[in-house]
Each structure stands twice: as C-alpha cells, then as structure tokens.
C-alpha cells in the first residue's frame, strides 16, 4: 500500500497525493513548507515551491507542490532518514533530515 497525504479540496486533485513508493516501510518525516521562494519541486514537478516535503528510510527526499504526485528530489545511498525539520536562521531556510 502506498502512503497518501490528504488535504481538503486541493486544487487540481481528488484529494489524494501519491508519495513515491519507498524501499522500506514508508515516509518517516514530513514538513509543510511555508516559504514560497524555497525548495522548488524538480524531477517531474513544475519548479514551483514545495508545499510538503517528505523523508524516507530509503534515503530519499520527495516534494509535492500540486497535482496528485510527489516527486523524489534527492537520493542519498546508504542514508536512513528517520525525521525531517525545516528551520530558518535570519533569512536562510534549510532542511534537516
């Protein structure tokens, strides 16, 4: 079974957003990105800022900004991400997995 993120009436979807299937048990961290000028969704996305970012035990970071699919943004071999946080220091935003 693939994990899903539910949102009430998101534009352009039926309410289900498919997160890329993991190599392990599933996403282990999620953050809502509130900075509209950071973390663009590439690798199949439209380049707009991610609304949600997901970490996974298989070393992937995925992002979603619209539509029904999140897209893998980076894969780190042998990494095991067990959580995710987004922080801002002064005017710099960073993502920690």
Q: In words, what does this structure look like?
A:
The chain is an all-beta fold and about 100 residues long. It has one domain. The chain has strands at about 5, 15-20, 25-30, 50-55, 60-65, 70-75, 85-90, 90-95. A four-stranded antiparallel β-sheet has the order 3-4-5-6, with no helix packed on it. Strands 1-2 form a two-stranded antiparallel sheet. A two-stranded antiparallel sheet has the order 7-8.
The main β sheet shows up as: 4 strands, antiparallel
- Percent helix, as a range, is under 10%
Radius of gyration: 13 Å
Structural class, judged by helices and strands?
A: mainly beta
Kindly, what is the distance between the CA atoms of the first and last residues, rounded to a whole number of angstroms? 24 Å
Give the beta-strand count. Answer: 8
Number of helices: 0
Widest sheet: strand ordering: 3-4-5-6
Record keyword descriptors for this entry.
single chain; 97 residues; mainly beta; four-stranded antiparallel beta sheet; two-stranded antiparallel sheet; globular
């Amino acid at each position: 079974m693939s994990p899903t993120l539910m949102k009430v009436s998101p534009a352009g979807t039926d309410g289900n957003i498919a997160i890329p299937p993991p190599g392990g048990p599933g996403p282990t961290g999620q953050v809502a990105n509130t900075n509209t000028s950071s973390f663009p969704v590439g690798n199949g996305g439209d380049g707009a800022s991610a609304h949600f970012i997901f970490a996974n035990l298989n070393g992937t970071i995925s992002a979603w900004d619209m539509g029904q699919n999140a897209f893998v943004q980076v894969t780190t071999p042998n990494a095991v991400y067990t959580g995710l946080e987004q922080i801002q220091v002064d005017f710099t935003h960073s993502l920690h997995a």
